[in-house]
Amino acid sequence: MTQATQSFKDGFLWGGAVAANQLEGAFNEGGKGLSTADVSPNGIMHPPNFELGEHNLYHQGIDFYSKYKEDIALFAEMGFKAFRFSIAWTRIFPNGDEQTPNEEGLQFYDDVIAELHKHDIEPVITISHYEMPLGLVKNYGGWKNRQVVDFYERFANVLLDRYHDKVKYWMTFNEININLHAPFTGAGLYVENGEVSEQDIYQSIHHQFVASAKAVSYGHELRSDIQIGCMIASMITYPYSSKPEDMQKAMQQDRNTLFFSDVQARGYYPSYVKAMLEQKGITLQMEQDDEAILQAGTVDYIGFSYYMSFVATTDEELLKDSTGGNLLTGVKNPYLKATDWGWQIDPIGLRTVCNQLYDRYQKPLFIVENGMGAVDKLEDGDVVNDDYRIDYLRAHIEQMALAVRDGVDLIGYTSWGPIDLVSASTAELKKRYGYIYVDRDSEGNGSNRRIKKKSFDWYKRVIASNGQNLS
């Protein structure tokens, strides 16, 4: 039996995380409008297809929309303490700028939350996760337009009004630093046959910071113990060598991530960001009260995803040999193995990230995504032997325990994709993360049956022992 080196605190939130656009399906049912995900048939890093004519797995998902009770029952069987999910903005405001929310969309989430409570599972809501109303892109230009702050505020306030007494844990934006790497997915920015300007990207980021802070402040007015966090894609960077130039580049790359949590956790733009914007010739358009809004609406905890680490180098030859990753590519680390998609497996990096973030902010941390995408094989007898996933998760949970021993305050761990869903980066189903196999392929074919993998019972034991039994 493998034993964790340190007990997780009582009430630790073990569970799983999903996104509405990657599993719900029913993209045009229940009064739902079109979102940016609905026109992204090849994943978040590719240009959109506004014609809707191309095959798009996001439209079908895994039909969580009609199978949520069955799926939540399976999560409960594993012993989930928490389930992180997002609200599809276009189920509530189909075009984004309506005055009145769509009651049918709200009723769906009423039912999901009620089902979670029925099984004593804590809902964890992400307000905006890799999708926004297409109407706000076409009619307002996306998040570069200040009006979108008001539309988000209305959306967030509707959710907080309706669910604040039922949901304690919230996040305002998923992986908000995606704006630097996929501006259409992150901010609804699109230029036909061209590049989105950095001015528009950073202006959009500022608007999201303001929108996030407003949601935090409003939530605090409604409930004294509400916990509203930011959420970043953590991508810690190692220098390839001991060359000072490599160290400098690694620091700069880390700052591209930490900038987002700095503003949301501290309530102001750090000096290095101001200097960077000045060097780029970018001037943010800020309203008179923006700085006060940011200061008043700092987050309660730092939520983050962790899948891999990166390596930085100034060596041009090494830069030619890159590998895949979450949102961006990087130099291969010769000391690490990688997944089938080139994502470098670095459990120790998770401990490092936990310490880095906790040292920096002294706010509780919540690991809200971590997992291994792999090609799983369904064998005779409905068996999926995913020992590689168990090994990956075990190694990361061991490092989480060591981070707790280091003194890090950790709220919980919701691994990514507890049930197979459509990949955000590649828009396919063959890249599977779940403890539950979904019998559907990347062409949308299959019975859509739910089948427990070997990792299902393993994670059940992990949760039951509060992370002590990792065997």
From TrEMBL:
GO MF terms, alphabetically ordered: beta-glucosidase activity
Keyword field: Glycosidase, Hydrolase
A matching Pfam family: Glyco_hydro_1
A Gene Ontology biological process term: carbohydrate catabolic process
Active site: E369 (nucleophile)
One GO CC annotation: cytosol
Keyword check for Hydrolase: yes
Protein family: Belongs to the glycosyl hydrolase 1 family.
PANTHER family: 6-PHOSPHO-BETA-GLUCOSIDASE ASCB-RELATED, GLYCOSYL HYDROLASE
Protein name according to UniProt: Glycoside hydrolase family 1 protein
Organism expressing this protein natively: Paenalkalicoccus suaedae
